[in-house]
Amino acid sequence: MRKLKLIWDFRGATGLGTAKHHCIHLKEFAELEKLNYHLIDHQEVNDMWSTAFIVVDEADMKIYRDALKPHRGEVFE
């Protein structure tokens, strides 16, 4: 089954801190809803742009997408 990476973008000087904090909420949501996921993490793209992301099975993507409204997604390899 394909894995999809759902991504949230955070820009500005506080973007990295916001992305790290968003990861906490992603984990809380998955645990509360008893949903499977493969990875939750953040990435600093540059000083003014960071992302938070969750990697899920394609079958679970719609649940996450509809509830959490990611900014974008991509296939995770």
What does this structure look like?
The chain is α+β, with helices and mostly antiparallel strands and 77 residues long. It has a single domain (1-76), classed as Alpha-Beta Plaits. It has helices spanning 15-33, 61-68; strands spanning 3-11, 39-46, 49-57, 72-76. A 4-stranded antiparallel sheet has the order 2-3-1-4. The chain is globular.
Task: Sum this structure up briefly.
This protein has about 80 residues and is of the alpha+beta class. It is about 35% helix and about 40% strand.
| Radius of gyration, CA atoms, in whole angstroms | 12 Å
Strand content: 35-45%
What is the averaged pLDDT score? Answer: 97
Q: Give the fraction of residues assigned to helices.
A: 25-40%
Major sheet size, sense and barrel closure: 4 strands, antiparallel
CATH architecture: 2-Layer Sandwich
Structural class: alpha+beta
First-last Cα distance: 11 Å
Per CATH, the class reads: Alpha Beta
The string of secondary-structure elements, in order, is EHEEHE
**CATH-defined topology:** Alpha-Beta Plaits
Number of helical segments with 4 or more residues? 2
